[in-house]
Amino acid sequence: MRPFSYERASDVQRAVIGGRETRQGQTDAPVQFLAGGTTLIDLMKLDVLRPARVVDIKGLKAAHASIEATPQRLRLGALASMAATARHPGVLRDYPVIAESLQLAASAQLRNMATLGGNVLQRTRCPYYRDTSWAECNKRDPGSGCTALKSFNRNHAVLGVDDSCISQYPGDFAVALVALDAAVELTGPTGRRMIAFETLHRPPQGKPNVETTLMPGEVITAFEVPAGPWTRRSLYLKIRDRSSYEFALSSAAVALDLNGGAVRQARIGLGGMAYRPWRAKEAEALLVGRPLNEGNAMAAATAALAGARTHGGNDFKPELGRRTLVRALLQAAAMEA
Ligand code: FAD
Ligand code: SF4
């Protein structure tokens, strides 16, 4: 690991000042915030992230780790741990898709350390990004090329990517957030702002090293999820190579409001398929007003994956994505809610 200077921020104002050069969305930012450290320290040890300065924001826990469930919304402090959020009674009862996306992620030890803010900003698991002996990686070294395009790309993205980078977004919690129309609260040098969670991660578009729309110095301070009649009938289905301690090959976050057997409203997020947690609005629209049977679920899943583009190793992914979504929809329809 390269030498770096370390400072602690005891409140959000100090974090914003300390982190004003974070260029947080960029992989080569000279300053990084340290929350749980479970992504950052790994990538610093691998020499992938090379910050000259690390600003420890664990001190923000006192003010930014609370979880509040009201009739209008769920508010999650960004410094709340994955474990504490997954076992919160209000989350378990009214937003099971969020609880499950966290319970099925990583390991118990990691979930105790890791925070929600750090979770949504975790980096891709593309092996060529994480191993600096591969020279070509536009995300790590802009302009160098993309090794994955012509090499092992079994777990790479099929939606929303271009030839500058085909890496997939690996997290689970973010898939639930995008399905439920969540917003992110950001605190930065010019104050506080809310953005739609869907706009936090940016597409590669030739610059995959710029991963988010965060402004310099901005800290994620909270997530807000609006309450809706669909949140109780919701679930997260994760398909992976082994049943524990593994990232998703494919996943679906599904929330349904049913009127008898017919769908009044549906919310669908897909994981493992795209450069970011992916909202499948075309699939949602196809379900409205129809009974949730296998045929209609497959029609929706086909629409969700219609734009898929594969690269050899991941040719199986669109079919896996469709089957994941069909199963998730039918399971959600059968839930007691
Ligand atoms: P950190 O490592 O502290 O930070 C990560 C990044 O976010 C850094 O760039 C940091 O500067 C930035 N950051 C952190 N907090 C903020 C903030 N509030 N505002 C602005 N920037 C911030 N995740 C899954 O979803 N599913 C899995 O199955 C899964 N499996 C895993 C298996 C292993 C072996 C490991 C090591 C990780 C796995 N993870 C998985 C990822 C894990 O969940 C993340 O590492 C963790 O959530 C990151 O949170 P953190 O608080 O430790 O972030
Ligand atoms: Fe790098 Fe993206 Fe290509 Fe992986 S897919 S090698 S992260 S540019």
* SS summary, helix count: 13
* Residues in helices, as a percent range: 25-40%
Main sheet strand line-up: 4-5-8-6-7
**Unreliable stretches covering 5 or more consecutive residues:** none
Using only CA atoms, what is the Rg? 19 Å
Secondary-structure element order, as H and E? EHEHEHEEHHHHHHHEEEEEEEHHH
**Structural class based on helices, strands and sheet pairing:** alpha+beta
Q: What does the largest sheet look like?
A: 5 strands, antiparallel
The first-level CATH class of the domain at 64-120 and 171-226 is given as Alpha Beta
DSSP E strands, number: 12
Quote the distance from N terminus to C terminus: 50 Å
List the helices and strands and how they pair.
Layout: E1 5-8, H1 12-18, E2 31-34, H2 40-45, E3 53-56, H3 61-64, E4 67-69, E5 73-77, H4 82-86, H5 89-94, H6 96-103, H7 108-113, H8 116-120, H9 127-130, H10 173-179, E6 183-188, E7 191-196, E8 219-226, E9 234-239, E10 250-259, E11 262-271, E12 278-279, H11 281-287, H12 294-304, H13 317-333
Parallel strand pairs: 1-3, 2-3
Antiparallel strand pairs: 4-5, 5-8, 6-7, 6-8, 9-10, 10-11, 11-12
Helix pairs in contact: 6-10, 11-12, 12-13
